[in-house]
Amino acid sequence: MTSLPDTPAPARPRKIIHIDMDAFYASVEQRDRPELRGLPVAVGGSRERGVVAAASYEARKFGVRSAMPSVTARRKCPELIFVPPRFDVYKAVSQQIRACFAEHTPLIEPLSLDEAYLDVTENLQGIASATEIAERIRARIRQETGLTASAGVSYNKFLAKLASDHRKPDGLFVITPRMGPGFVEALPVGRFHGVGPATSTRMNRLGIHTGLDLRAQSMAFLQQHFGKAGPYYYWISRGIDDRPVRPDRIRKSIGAETTFAIDLTALEAADAALQPLIDKVWRYCEATGIRGRTVTLKVKYADFSQATRSRTGLTLITARGEIAQVSRALLEPLFPPPRGVRLLGVTLSTLNSEEPAEAGAQLTLLV
Ligand SMILES: [Mg+2]
């Protein structure tokens, strides 16, 4: 037995469920349009341009994935059927599944329209088994929406999320405290929530391919290479994750960021890298009807120092192009950068879903 310094394990084991709808947007389309059932369907994008937002399981067999350019998707699957998204419908289904969760616990932390963590350690119906609660929720969702969900059950968020992915679609998987560390050991690091493609590439270059490789690294090494995320990686490689399930805070901002496999130094490369982030933020705005007035640009450098620049307009931003324009204006003065840029982020805040902000004059430059 190794003894762990400052183990942040909670005093009492928790019961956490992660629920994830299966191929959500695509499944909703196949539910509502029977002629699409059994066929490869991509929601979003078009035959010529754009990006796939979601792919049906039939499309996934051909290698079509969400966030893939439509052109690539069509090359992989020439019969792919492109369907425009209907975010108002997805949002309505999202509210239905939330109601299913709320029958069991108020501790619901949504990750997106179709995914949430639930803390059911204490639960409204006094059911002792988290697995039973997860099965009831899955059955209820199917009954209410006609759609399938997968569930992961474990003692923390990190493992619950890994578990929900393990028996997809329409599955349930439990990771017990005894299984946790071993389960993590065997997995490639790219499968871990919080390790994106760029971080995964960085880890691979450092010889870290699996959970076991990750666990072999010291805290100091991980902090040196991954900054603030280092301790998170240190603990998850041991199956430890003490983050609480944070219910429904009022959303104050909508942001997206990405870490690059290779640091950027050119303005045009940085501007190009911002575009998918702006797409993400804007897609969320369109899906939820939320709009904002403040655009914030975050730049993190190779040495982990960072700069943020914001601009707040008098009126709500109503088009994607406005975010792109302001981001570009905030980006330009930061180039050429003092060091390579390892991360860029774009955030929209001063949202119309919050309290009205005090009126500012013209454009306020908050630095
Ligand atoms: Mg899903």
UniProtKB/TrEMBL annotation:
Binding site for Mg(2+): D20, D114
Pfam family, one: IMS_HHH_1
Chemical reaction(s) catalysed: DNA(n) + a 2'-deoxyribonucleoside 5'-triphosphate = DNA(n+1) + diphosphate
Site description Substrate discrimination, residues in chain: Y25
Purpose: Poorly processive, error-prone DNA polymerase involved in untargeted mutagenesis. Copies undamaged DNA at stalled replication forks, which arise in vivo from mismatched or misaligned primer ends. These misaligned primers can be extended by PolIV. Exhibits no 3'-5' exonuclease (proofreading) activity. May be involved in translesional synthesis, in conjunction with the beta clamp from PolIII.
Family per record: Belongs to the DNA polymerase type-Y family.
Protein name per UniProt: DNA polymerase IV
Organism listed in the record: Siccirubricoccus deserti
Gene: dinB
